[in-house]
Amino acid sequence: MSDGISRADVAHLANLARIDLSDAELDRLTPELTVILESVAQVAAIASADVPPTSHAVPLSNVFREDVVTPGLTPEQALAGAPAVEQQRFAVPRILGEDA
Amino acid sequence: MTATRTELVPFDAALETYDPAMGLEVHVELNTASKMFCGCSTVFGAEPNTQVCPTCLGLPGALPVVNGKAVESAIRIGLALNCSIAPWSRFARKNYFYPDMPKNFQTSQYDEPIAYDGWTEVTVETDEGPRVFRIDIERAHMEEDTGKSLHVGGSTGRIHGADHSLVDYNRAGIPLIEVVTKPILGAGKYAPLVARAYVASLRELVKALDVSDARMEQGSMRCDVNLSLAPSGSDVLGTRSETKNVNSLRSVERAVRYEVERHAGILDAGQKVVQETRHWHEDTGVTTSGREKSDAEDYRYFPEPDLVPVAPSDAWVEELRATLPEPPAERRARLQAEWGYSDLEMRDVVGAGAIDLIEATISAGATPTAARKWWLGDLARRANDTATPIDELGVTPTQVAEVQALVDAKRINDKLARQVFDGLVAGEGTPEEIVAARGLEVVSDDGALAAAVDRAIEANPDVADKIRDGKVAAAGALIGAVMKDMRGQADAGRVRELIIEKLS
Hints:
The complex is a heterodimer.
Chain A lengths: L6 H10 L6 H24 L17 E2 L9 H5 L5 E2 L2 E5 L7
Antiparallel strand pairs in A: 2-3
Chain B lengths: L10 H7 E12 L36 E2 H13 L3 E2 L6 E4 L9 E4 L6 E12 L2 E16 L3 E5 L11 E5 L6 E7 L9 H19 L11 E11 L9 E6 L2 H20 L7 E6 L4 E7 L9 E2 L10 H8 L6 H12 L3 H9 L3 H9 L4 H19 L10 H12 L5 H12 L5 H8 L7 H14 L1 H8 L6 H11 L6 H12 L1
Parallel strand pairs in B: 12-13
Antiparallel strand pairs in B: 1-10, 1-11, 3-6, 4-5, 4-15, 6-7, 7-10, 8-9, 11-12, 13-14
Helix pairs in contact in B: 1-4, 3-4, 8-9, 8-10, 9-10, 10-11, 13-15, 15-16
EC number (chain B): 6.3.5.-
Keywords (chain B): ATP-binding, Ligase, Nucleotide-binding, Protein biosynthesis, Transferase
Pfam families (chain B): GatB_N (PF02934), GatB_Yqey (PF02637)
């Protein structure tokens, strides 16, 4: 990680995240991300084994709800924002290159 | 990238050259009332998009909260599989773009599964008799199910050729536990049977825990089969294929067999197995290529910021451990010893799905022999003939015990008992009521029996002579004649006594 990130890495991640980046943006983002990763690496270098990694802003665990059914949305409400609806379902373009 | 199509190598021939290694991933849908992270109902078969809310639709601002019961079920599954339970574990986002998850990620667990490092054992019939195979469990983790896509415009309902897809999110967010084995090595030619036995035992286990319906035909339990071959004796694993959604026990066995034959064909032709996802076709019994498997990194897993860690205390884990039922294999062994059944008899009982029924019948007063005789004889045949699950025939264990009590009291015989079962299946009342209403009680009046015996002797003088000459075995023919005369309503033992008395 401390080795930074290559331009190809950034292009790959952008592709995975479905973000269309221009060459100019890749040129700008690659060094910026490298700086960010170097900063993270500094923190990682200081953290020792007795410091648990932080993943949440609040020191909570075991927040559970009862297994009880609560009212949700009606199909009309649920589908209100859908770009297209057919047979009370969300209609989406077919997906290429993958399978269900 | 797809290799040139190669011939399949017959299974037995493939096993002469290669050792199979398997990995099984089983998804178990939990039977909680509500979803994993929201309060939407989980009932199967509802109208599309009637069990959805902002959380499971991934609408902005919605916050998930973990279903405590689902965590409990996950821990109990882990404990039943002899796993360690993580004292601290997190959820993670598995990022991918596919419309079956409206959030563009699936909430799952990545490097911190709730349960890990377990094992279970399955017994498989081999040429040398039953053999126990140990299956090591890598992990059992919590995640959520995806929505259901309906592909329209294509001819087959599959994605290829479809114009567009219609998505129903009722299933999205239903709690799933994914149980992953470590590579299963050394099963050799028994690999297909071991895979099947493992999935069967897992199904039995989650049912015994009462955490899932485990109905493979409804998709509440689904299996992915990873398989690779290595040259015999090699300790290096070959390249694997991952066959998705193998959804019956028989298909698990067939899919392993097919992949062994396919991999062997590729390797024999000097080609390389492509690491890819494959689809199982139930109708033709083959797998076809899906997509090439992306690297784990491509899912860009990261800890789920909207959910706090799950940190089960030792006390909670021990409390849950105390709720575990007797492991199915131990229970079977205990009951077999108690009932005095042979291995073969016990296997038939298990195969017929009659273990609980027989246990209850014995509790209701029948002997183990009698309970087995009815459930595996007349009742199993009825279940088979009518394609009805044996526990849905309409005959209860208590009734079977009552019928046997009537037989023991010599008020009916086995043949008449079958007519009582006819009545029970038809809902004609209790065994007593059916015996009375159908007039099934055997004739115990010696006068009536003796008259029938006399008629039989008169009608079969040659048989009678044989018996007079000491050939007692010939009595069977006369007993048959008397039973026919009495329309089956006679005590065959008493008839025999009367015949011998009269002819000696």
